[in-house]
Please model this.
Amino acid sequence: MPTLSLVAPFLNEQESVTDFARFTKRLGCDIKKRFNLDLEVVLVDDGSTDDSVVRYRNALEGNWRIVELSRNFGKEIALFSGIEESKGDFVLMVDADLQHTFSVCMELINELLADDELDVVYSVRADRLEESRSKAVFSKLFYRLINAGQRFTIPENAGDFRIMRREAAEALRTIRDKRRFNKGLYAWMGFRQKGILYTPSPRTSGSTKWSKMGLAALSLEGITSFSAVPLRIMSVIGVIIGLLGVMYGAEIVVKGLIFDTDVPGYPSLMASISVLGGFNLALLGLLGEYIWVTIGEVKDRPLYIVRRIHRSGGKPQ
Ligand code: UDP
Ligand code: MG
Model:
């Protein structure tokens, strides 16, 4: 019988363990009835410091594994290790905090199974469409920038909550980027993908692990690992300012030599120094970001380290 792997990373989600176990049980029953699928649950402990692992081990039923990472590696990498551990013919990725509702999970599975031509069905957050205007403008700009001149398009508001066929999951496994901007990687790998709209339910327990700074860092990571557009913009600005400088210089020479007028020195000097200095520093910082990404890739450390794997009906290995 074909198997569905449910992959979920967690970090300190002890409050939602029982609900999650109930969720997996219900999913296991329903997919067997509706789609004739077996369920395999692969959880990834992303360096939890509470007793989530023990609770999951006690609460989970059926066929499950918990990959315990040696420390916190971040959701992107935790998900990746879960995909590597999964063996199912289909891989469904959800958050352990149950914000991804049961009905949408069923819808994702249904959409993929209904169409042989589809490899991936991803979810698109509908609630983002109604977010504040400034946020929406920022988000539009971000996607414009990151998608500029690419041969693939990263869809807006499409996250990790998706289902893939084994072939797509295997393709994802071959991407060894150390800095993982998942949204970009999903788009980069191609395949036939389809999006469906959903609204996540509010968190019932615990708190979000994302800070504003964390989100900003992720956006920057996305840009620096997928786009050279900011560098090009800076180069163009550099060229324009350089040309303006040449023109201004020519004007001064003409004024001074031919018309013999005094050129005000200090203000023009200050203006050009601060403009050029500012842009220089900004470009250096930007270059530094790209170099930092490069250093991370060159070091070629493993993406994650597993401390141990817990299995249903067995001792930890
Ligand atoms: N998570 C993780 N590692 C992290 C941060 C988060 O495994 O470093 C998990 C977290 O436990 C949850 C999922 O990733 O299951 C989504 O995180 P969260 O709910 O904080 O994000 P949000 O839903 O607010 O975007
Ligand atoms: Mg959440």
About this structure: The chain has ten helices and eight strands. Residues 265-299 form the longest helix (35 residues).
